Amino acid sequence: MVRQPSINAQNRAPLSIERIIDAALRIVDGQGLSRLTMRRLGDALEVEAMAIYHHLPRGKEQLLDGLVAHVAAAPATPGGAGGAWREDLRGWARDYRTRLLAHAGVLPLVVTRRNPAALTETVVSLREVMRRGAVPEDAAAVAAHALLGYVIGHAALEVRGTAEDGADRAVDWDARFDAGLDLLLTGAG
Length: 189
Description:
Keywords: DNA-binding, Transcription, Transcription regulation
Order of helices and strands: HHHHHHHHHH
CATH class of the largest domain: Mainly Alpha
Number of domains: 2
CATH architecture of the largest domain: Orthogonal Bundle
Protein name: TetR family transcriptional regulator
Distance between the termini: 72 Å
InterPro entries: Homeodomain-like_sf, HTH-type_TetR-like_transc_reg, HTH_TetR, Repressor_TetR_C, Tet_transcr_reg_TetR-rel_C_sf
GO molecular function: DNA-binding transcription factor activity; transcription cis-regulatory region binding
Domain Tetracycline repressor TetR C-terminal: 82-166
Helix content: 55-70%
């Protein structure tokens, strides 16, 4: 007996790296990183787990790298000139923090995995915005790394949910983020 594909399978988009990463991200966001297995991913995609290896020959290692690249990719920085560069960076930082918090399950991978391409592109983009604001190259390089580290580190503290200053009151993470961001940006140039 020949098995006929289901109607759902006939209407499903072909398997692609983008579709695999999106499905993996849904698993991590909904169930946590520890629940991401190739079998569970195959079930979510309605394919045999081995079909995933056609697109990701290195398997789970390549999948995890893909998650980092997807989440840690730099949101676009606007092309403002002159005095607007700080506002451009402020907008970028807020957007990046929002993206990291939306995919908090991937955040440990952003911090621990070596994926220089995604982070390098981000630093290059930040340096370019600073150079438009007449920040000298050496200072822009240092400030770009500091800003990226600040946003990732702050998001990690938020996800952990600690009042790291020892306060016995709720932390206003938005206000704390903006205050730290202001300190970084006013010292950047």
